[in-house]
Amino acid sequence: MMENFVIYNPVKLHFGQGVTEKLGKSAVPFGGRALLLYGRGSVKDNGAWQQSRDSLERAGIRVVEYSGIKSNPIVEDADEAAALGRREGVDMVVAVGGGSVLDTAKFVALAIPAGHSCWHFATGEKKPVQALPVLGVLTLAATGSEMNAVAVIQNDKEKKKIGYGHPLMFPRHSFLDPTFTLSVPANYTAYGIVDLVAHALEGWFGEGEASLTDRFILSIIREALEYGPKLMQSPGDYTLRAKIMHAATMALNGLTVQGKKSGDWGVHSIGHAMSVLWDIPHGASLSIAYPAWLRLQQDRIPGRIHELGSGLFGSGDAGQSIEQLASFFHTLGSPLSLSEAGTEPDQKAKQALFEVMTINKVDGIHHKLSEDDYRWLIDQMA
Ligand code: NZQ
Ligand code: ZN
Description:
By secondary structure, this protein is α/β, with parallel strands linked by helices. It folds into two domains: about 170 residues, Rossmann fold, CATH 3.40.50; about 200 residues, Dehydroquinate synthase-like, alpha domain, CATH 1.20.1090.10. Helix content is about 50%, strand content about 10%. The protein has 15 helices and eight strands. A six-stranded parallel sheet has the order 1-8-5-4-2-3, with helices on both faces. Strand 6 and strand 7 form a beta hairpin. The radius of gyration is 20 Å and the shape is globular. The relative contact order is 0.12. The structure holds 5,6-dihydroxy-NADP and zinc ion. The site of 5,6-dihydroxy-NADP (NZQ) has 35 residues, from helix 2, helix 5, strand 6 and helix 7.
């Protein structure tokens, strides 16, 4: 059945060459002081940091900075950045970087006015009542964080990685200049393509029937199937970078769940467990987990997998479609197993993954996973 749905997406998206120029002007209505967040330095090489600072300063906005945010971001960085922002009395948070920086900014924007750790929001112990405005300058096509109200944060002490969403977390403005993504190395370019495909698939496997939404989803994945490999061959091609950046944003901004209760998110939940344990890059965890999950579901939801395979590959055989998808991930250069991702899958590692999956209550919203499924999946992913 087609489910009832609400559409709400207030993000003002600025897409194309040179759009970051408008950052300062867009920020002025929010106040005169910005906390600018970035990661471990790539933004200084590709021009994103300089252009963002210049634009903010031209508009008369004072900037304080917090840097060093790691990929698979951690709660300590978000809390330290929030403490700095509170001390400096900032009016807004500007993220310059990939999904990790943007996700951190979203949590920082909640934590500054709240005055406590952002982790309490992630766990659901506290509900946000206000947030500082977030503005994003994206440098990596992958997560869709630039046009959604979700952020994912890791707590190493508790061995948990949690995705949390609240309407207050929508960025007010996101600036997407594909030029900044020209410097993304091959591995993260591949992981980003895997991630966008995985987001579309999470929508595909959500509960609810909506044929137009299915067509949107197939179009997004086809875009990745066609242009992803070309981009891996020509990483300096602006048009290909732009196509993939556009696809990544559309894959997780609400478009793919119209007429559905939600996406499934079981595979993401498995991927997060791997990132907690071994700091595996997000997209790499998904190219390992998705084929395994599809094999698990092959006899449970044969119709849906068959429909996907025929829509993407014109294939009438579900098993063959799963292997075609796996081979697509592999061709990009993303791993299909833990060992390919650099983790020796011995008994100890498998048990550790089982435990972290249990701690994180790994599950799909629609397609439920049992402990026996965990074991089966872990063996498949080894
Ligand atoms: O630290 P820096 O120097 O910035 O380097 C980064 C990082 O090493 C580098 N990079 C980014 N832009 C670059 C670049 N290097 C060269 N040139 C550029 N233009 O790439 C590395 C990865 O960056 P990161 O931000 O971690 O990648 P991504 O955008 O894939 O974000 C991953 C995080 O997002 C979460 C993931 O779980 C993970 O924690 N997700 C967020 C979602 C959301 N908010 O909706 C949904 C996703 O499913 C995902 O879970
Ligand atoms: Zn993802």
